[in-house]
Each structure stands twice: as structure tokens, then as C-alpha cells.
Amino acid sequence: MEITLQNLTKVFQSKKEDEVVAVDNLDIVIPSGKLYGLLGPSGCGKSTTLFMISGLLKPTEGKIYFGEEDVTPVPPEDRGIGLVFQNYALYPHMTVKQNIMFPLENLKIDKKEGLKKAQEIADLVGIGHLMDRKPAQLSGGQQQRCAIARALVKEPRVLLLDEPLSNLDARLRLQTREEIRRIQRETGITTVFVTHDQEEAMSISDEIVVLDEGVTQQVGQPQDVYDKPNNLFVAKFLGTPPINLFDGRIENGKIMIGDAYIGKSEAEDQEVTVGIRPEGFKIVERSSFQVEVEFVETIGRDTTLIINHPNVEVQGSFEDPEEEGDVTTVEDTEFEALNLEMGSGKSIQDQKTFRAIVDADYGVQPGDTVKFSVKPHKMHVFNKETGELV
Ligand code: ATP
Asked: Which of 70, 96, 230, 312 is most buried when burial is the number of CB atoms within 10 A of its CB?
């Protein structure tokens, strides 16, 4: 079942505040039988979009089609959707079997047939042996599978998942996301998956849409969006560790960071932000891009070099720490360690650093000077003012 969102807009009005445009003119086609990830930072309008698809929220403007059918005026219960939320919302006093069968109650389905169906779905999601347990006797992952089974039992046309893995610990998240992928493939049901976790969306989605402030930034297959970000926002949002950003300029067809020449460009002269993925650096014999390595971290075959550099524009985490009230990122912890080691009194915020992931065989040590060339397909150059690709 293909889902089309046409000029979909949602404006919330409240007496105390100005209007909030949660979703702004969204135009997307969610292909039939695919797993589609709605991705973006907190507050970008993901849940609002999902709730409009489900019918729980009415759009301010625009239309929603399931196949050819305009479902915009259709109430949620008649849309043929299965919904799964972050908190599993199972009925605590009912067994797994009763929970899964609950949506069938209003349908005039023969009890025996209903039981058979519930067992089939429970087997599909891997909890067929737990039918007589109550939710409190299940692990978080099992509870979430039960919620998915309940959403699937009515054979919905569309499955909508809103941050379904957020309440699970790291290991279960990984396992359950693979499970969701498998269930989606086996049932072939068009699925929309909402998450703020880019890695999660990238790993299981056939296609993703990246949203910011209710506006589509880019749509495509995860790898394509990662390899060819349309703008600075998308480049920053996708990738762990994040893309390195440098203040730079284009001068006579050359991309420059300070005095270092790092590549060619056909764009006209301008101030730019140069994004280089950590895996985009190559150690070479001759280059004007010469740096001193501060900190080295080796995991398996890869060495991450952390380098102080005056032209790094934004370091590390995508979220603005001031705004999010969260200043502890992985980078921070490393730098606390680094600061202690160097006996430096500098605060973390003063550090202008970037990271390069290179082959461990180079045996780079802290204090070494290395020369880099930059792999052109791992470098993205954006206009400094607009953030658009140049
Ligand atoms: P999160 O990942 O934090 O759940 P989200 O991307 O799902 O975020 P939405 O819940 O869709 O974001 O919210 C989008 C914007 O709309 C936010 O700015 C939010 O504050 C606002 N918003 C959501 N619901 C309402 C409401 N009922 N009234 C007013 N504003 C709302």
C-alpha cells in the first residue's frame, strides 16, 4: 500500500504561544511494501506526521492517500493501520494471548479462528511460547514484540512505529530492530518508522526522509543520503562519529582550509564550510594539509586521530549543548581524559578539534606530524551562509 503525503501541514495553535508549524508542506511518497524511516532531531515533526498518517491528528492542510484512496477524512479505526508506540501500552491484567486478540474483539471473528490468528502472529514475532504470561512477566523486548503482534493481528494496510525501541537497552535495541526488519520483510507491510536515532533509521530503512523544523531536508536510500547530503544539516545529522566541519573558502577553483589546499571545485569564489567525514582522510607523503596529532585511539584495524586545528567550525555532537542541557558527549569524556593527561587547563569548549580515522598500520603516535589528502567523495562543501551544497 503506497502512502502519499501531499502538501501536508500541521499548525498547532495555543492561546499562550504563537502558532507552531509542526509540519510544513510535506510532500512525500512512501513506497508500497517498504520500511520508511522518518528521521530528525527532537521536535522536527516526526510524531506529528505519523499521527496524521494514522488519523489521530487532523492536518491543517494537505491530503493523505493510501494507494488511490484519499483517507484524509477517514477516522483512525477505519484506516486499516497498526500503531506501535514507545511505551508498549499493553493491558497489564491481560495475558499475551488476550492482548494480541484484543483488536479482534470488535470484529465478528470466530473465537477459534481468532486464537489461530493470534498464535500465528505471536509465532511470527517470536513470542508464541509466552501466550499465557502477563506483560509484567515479559522482558522489555518481549513486551514490544507483543505490542507489534497486537498491531499486526488485524492485518493492517500500514504499520506505524513511533520510536518503538526507545525503552529498550542497547543490546535489545539492536536485536529488536533486526526483528522489526525481519517481520516487515516477511509480511511485506508498508511500514513507517519514526526515530531520532540516525543509526537506527539508516540500518533498517529502505528509504529515509530527514526532517528539520517540519520541513523535508532530503529523501532517499540511507547510503545515498549519507554519501550525498543536500545540505549542511543533513551532513551533520548523519554519521557516527559526525562529519568534521572546517571554515574554508573556494579560491580560483581550489578548496582551501587556511593555507592547506584540499581539493578542486568548479564553484565560484566564496566562503564555505567544508565537511570531511572522519574516514575521508588519507595519510600521504606530500601535502600542504599538515597537522600535529594530539590523541590516538585504536580499535581493531582503525586508528582515530584527534587533531587540534584552528579552522574546525563545529566539534562533535549535533545537538547544541546549551539548548539540550546535555554537555556530556563521548568527545567530552575523551577530552576530559586528554586534558588531564596534558595537564591543560583549557575548557572543552575551547578545543577546536577534528577526528580522522586511518589504518592502524600507519602506527601514528600522539605528537606525530601527519600530512593528509582528502578523499573527494568523503568531502562535502557548503556555502557558509546558506548551508547549501556548492
Ligand atoms: P520527538 O522526537 O521529541 O518526539 P518529534 O519530531 O516527534 O519530536 P513532534 O512531536 O511532531 O516532534 O512535534 C513537532 C513540534 O510541534 C514541536 O515543536 C512540538 O513542540 C510541537 N507540538 C507538538 N504537539 C503539539 C501540541 N499539541 N500543541 C502545540 N505544539 C505541539
From this structure: 96
Residue identifier of the C-alpha nearest atom 11 of ligand 1: 45
Q: For the chain, what is the HEC assignment?
A: CCEEEEEEEEEECCCCCCCEEEEEEEEEEECCCCEEEEECCCCCCHHHHHHHHHCCCCCCEEEEEECCEECCCCCHHHCCEEEECCCCCCCCCCCHHHHHHHHHCCCCCCHHHHHHHHHHHHHHHCCHHHCCCCHHHCCHHHHHHHHHHHHHCCCCCEEEEECCCCCCCHHHHHHHHHHHHHHHHHHCCEEEEEECCHHHHHHHCCEEEEEECCEEEEEECHHHHHHCCCEHHHHHHCCCCCCEEEEEEEECCEEEECCEEEEECCCCCEEEEEEECHHHEEECCCCCCEEEEEEEEEECCEEEEEEECCCEEECCCCCCHHHHCCCCCHHHHHHHHHHHHHCCCCCHHHCCEEEEEEEHHHCCCCCCEEEEEECHHHEEEEECCCCEEC
Q: Is 12 in the pocket of ligand 1 (CB under 6 A)?
A: yes
What pLDDT was estimated at residue 19? 87
Which CATH number applies to 3-232: 3.40.50.2300, 2.30.29.30, 2.70.70.10, 3.40.50.300?
A: 3.40.50.300
pLDDT tens digits, one per residue of 330-369 = 444 444 444 444 433 344 445 688 999 999 999 999 999 9
The more confident residue out of 198 and 378 is 378
What per-residue confidence (pLDDT) applies to 158?
94
**Residue 80 Cα, ligand 1 centroid: separation in angstroms?**
24
Summarize pLDDT for 245-268 with one digit per residue, the tens: 999 999 999 999 999 999 999 999
